[in-house]
Design goal:
This protein is an alpha/beta fold. It contains 13 helices and 20 strands. The chain has three domains: 191 residues, P-loop containing nucleotide triphosphate hydrolases (Rossmann fold), CATH 3.40.50.300; 152 residues, Rossmann fold (3-Layer(aba) Sandwich); 73 residues, RRM (RNA recognition motif) domain (Alpha-Beta Plaits), CATH 3.30.70.330. Helices cover 32% and strands 21% of the residues.
Length: 432
């Protein structure tokens, strides 16, 4: 199959057309040895670098050819999912902290063509010589500046020093101006900078709290927003624990996402947020970049961000891809705003809201490795459990399991299909 037809097949499979950034990035990555891609969150940078790289790989080579480094486990998992859905036929693996190293070694005995990982875990593999780096010709440093911000500079130096045969280096970031340290070794990079076309569609509004403790103002704001997806940003994980407890006392359902909780719980919080089980996600700046969440209308800055870049990246979770969005800044009436926040005042009662369906998340103990498809799962709930199409929501299919959003009013019906055969495997089904 020709490269052009192969790309057409992938894009048809994904059901998308390339945007201007992706077209220019593909051309640059195909023709240049060093590319720096600066484009806002949500514009499709992952596809922008994967498409041209797939065309450069040798399917007969049994060693790793592409190494993609990302700062967070969530971003690693997200890139892996995009790469797998492209259906290239090439082996793809992801490695990151929070999983057993021995599991990595077992999976990497049969080398993938593309390896995706966090700096710390990949550096650990390099030190232990799990695999050869000789055939790694293509390096992607995704959200490069974020890796430096979270303390991976020494690992990044180590990785770059251990890759002697690189043909291409690709750096990406959602930050408009990127300072690339000397150790990256860029000589004459092709830099592509794309402004955020949606900046003018983002409204920034201030809600004033009469009390220094802003927690009751937050509760009233969330009640007014209603059943709409919203991320609430806090500066500290300890604050999230306190806010979470307060919301629970007010019977406000929500998820939490920060570095101090187990990886499995972080993943499940995102799954529940994506499928609508949770409409509210309490998060630190870990969620400001590199996580896969749906288009959301509202961001709330419960704590004022400490730097302008944090403010920009938080706001990047809304008003994406030509949609409108609002970022609310909650401040005490005697508190000043940082110089980088320009906003207009807003009364809580003026916030537009609308109700939506309430979902619950169901776990299925079978996934891609069992040859199970999303269609199989939908058929199980519709044909055997008696749900309507509207009562089965988002289906997320993993390697060894799946998660499905089910209308909360129909959740008892899942008992009918627990421990039944799906394809050739008996699956257990339970509410998460």
């Amino acid at each position: 199959m020709s490269e052009l037809k192969d790309q057409e097949r992938i894009l048809k499979k994904l059901g998308i057309e390339l945007n201007e950034m992706q077209k220019e990035a593909e051309q640059a990555i195909s023709g240049e040895s060093e590319v720096v891609l600066l484009s806002p969150t949500g514009t499709g940078k992952t596809l922008a670098f994967l498409l041209p790289l797939l065309e450069l790989l040798d399917p007969e080579n049994a060693e790793i050819q592409v190494l993609i480094i990302a700062p967070t486990r969530e971003l690693v998992i997200q890139i892996e999912q995009v790469a797998r859905t492209m259906g290239s036929g090439l082996k793809i693996n992801a490695v990151y902290g929070g999983t057993q190293f021995s599991k990595d070694k077992t999976e990497l005995k049969h080398r993938p063509s593309i390896l995706i990982g966090t700096p710390g875990r990949v550096a650990d593999h390099f030190r232990r010589k799990t695999f050869s780096t000789t055939d790694i010709h293509y390096l992607v440093l995704d959200e490069f500046d974020k890796s430096l911000e979270v303390g991976f500079e020494s690992e990044m130096k180590e990785l770059l020093a251990a890759l002697p045969n690189l043909k291409k280096k690709i750096l990406t970031s959602a930050t408009k101006s990127l300072n690339v340290p000397r150790f990256v070794g860029l000589k004459q990079p092709k830099t592509l900078t794309f402004a955020d076309e949606n900046e003018n569609k983002l409204k920034i509004k201030v809600i004033t709290s009469p009390a220094k403790d802003k927690i009751d103002t937050l509760v009233e704001t969330l009640k007014q927003i209603g059943n709409q997806p919203v991320i609430v940003f806090c500066n500290y994980k300890e604050s999230i624990d306190r806010v979470s407890q307060h919301l629970a006392e007010h019977n406000i359902s929500h998820g939490t996402f920060y570095g101090g909780i187990e990886q499995k719980e972080r993943e499940r919080a995102l799954i529940k947020f994506r499928n609508g089980t949770y409409k509210i996600l309490l998060a630190t700046d870990l969620a400001a970049r590199g996580i896969d969440v749906p288009e959301i209308k509202y961001i709330i800055h419960y704590h004022l961000p400490q730097r302008s870049q944090e403010f920009i990246h938080r706001n990047g979770r809304t008003a994406r891809m030509h949609s409108e969005g609002t970022a609310f800044v909650i401040k005490w009436e005697k508190e000043g705003l940082p110089h980088f926040i320009e906003a207009e005042a807003e009364e809580i009662s003026n916030i537009e809201s609308q109700d939506g369906s309430q979902w619950k998340t169901v776990f299925i103990s079978g996934g891609r490795k069992d040859k199970i498809s999303k269609g199989d799962i939908a058929g199980l709930f519709i044909k055997q459990a008696g749900l309507s199409m509207e009562e089965v929501g988002t289906i997320e299919l993993k390697h060894d399991c799946a998660f499905v959003a089910i209308d909360a009013s129909q959740i008892d019906k899942i008992k009918k299909v627990d421990n039944v055969k799906l394809k050739s495997k008996k699956v257990r089904i339970s509410v998460v």
